[in-house]
Amino acid sequence: MHEGQGLPAIGGDPAREYRLGIMGGTFDPIHYGHLVTAERAREALGLDLVLFMPAGTPAFKLDQKVTSAEDRYAMTLLATATNPLFDASRFEIDREGTTYTVDTLRALRAHYPDNVKLFFITGADAIMDILAWHDAEGLASLTTFIAATRPGYDIVRAQEIVEASGIDFDVRYIEIPALAISSTSIRELVRDGKSVRYLTATAVEGYIRKMGLYRAEDIERVEGAVGQ
Ligand code: NAP
Hints:
There is one protein chain. With 228 residues, this protein is α/β, with parallel strands linked by helices. It is 36% helix and 18% strand. The protein is built from eight helices and eight strands, in the order E-H-E-E-H-E-E-H-E-H-H-E-H-E-H-H. The strands form two sheets. A six-stranded parallel beta sheet has the order 4-2-1-6-7-8, sandwiched between helices. Strands 3-5 form a two-stranded parallel sheet. Helix 2 (69-80) runs antiparallel to helix 8 and helix 3 runs parallel beside helix 5 (136-142). It is globular, with a radius of gyration of 17 Å. Bound molecules: NADP nicotinamide-adenine-dinucleotide phosphate. NADP nicotinamide-adenine-dinucleotide phosphate (NAP) binds at residues 23-26, 33-34, 37, 55, 58-61, 99-101, 121-123, 125-126, 129-130, 133-134, 148, 179, 182-184.
């Protein structure tokens, strides 16, 4: 299934268009809200494959302690393993330095033939951050954005931010009730010795317990670290 740079083979038939979803996130940990988001996006946009891509050193999180990339990738692999239309990628975690989405999308655009269209899926707030930073015009030409929102999210405000940029971004919004689950709440539940059953895949829950992730000392912010 995988070819160069650890990326899945897609785009083989030049006579047709392929749609590749790139599911970007820190995934610390991955949970059912993420999985439902990917499934809804896949159906809504007719994606051939959704590639879950844990961020290596996430931009905007340089002042926070983030679980090791290997653990976040392992959990992502476990959570996606049973769905043949989902895949997990080491692409960003194997790259040096801070993760910028525009760099990833450029590399994917260079890697895949033109008949593969790219759709970058992530939380709506994260998308607003991405659009505000790092070569916004370049981003607009590379991908359609799929912005996942929790119920009650102010989409009008988000649209205003996008329009104010003056750049022709293609952003589709999808409301995901299951995003009431958050990675933060899962980390806090584990820290407090509570159950996270039914919030994430059983295998992920088992991995968290087995590796001793999210114990109290692990989720404290790193004091004095300098953010971006
Ligand atoms: P974040 O700020 O931690 O997340 C913002 C919100 O979106 C949170 O509520 C989060 O919930 C949710 N979210 C995150 N990923 C999601 C996903 N794939 N599907 C649905 N909801 C999601 O965001 P982040 O994890 O650091 O970054 C998300 C993606 O944007 C990553 O690929 C990151 O590299 C990229 N990003 C790039 C830049 C840049 O290039 N300058 C800047 C910011 C983010 P949970 O906490 O429950 O996930």
